[in-house]
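Please check these two lines:
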Amino acid sequence: MDAIMRESSFAQYIMKQGIEQGERRSTIGAILDVLEIRFDLSEAHPLSARIAAIDDLQRLKQLLRSAVQVSSLEAFQQILDEAD
């Protein structure tokens, strides 16, 4: 019974990690889409790689909100720089 509980906990942990990774990738994609639509940001732009390297999901969610609200790509970059 203990082995089943441990396996179940481990499986839940793995599933949670997979869900978080999927949400992270989705949020990164959304940020890049917003920046591309609003400011014509290309995938080759160095900002794209910096955003893709962020692991913190909450930080990514904040950046998504910022991407929608900022008035320029430079303003977004300044927000990104503040976190580094």
In short: The radius of gyration is 17 Å. Residues 34 and 68 are 7 Å apart (CA to CA). The chain has a mean pLDDT of 90.
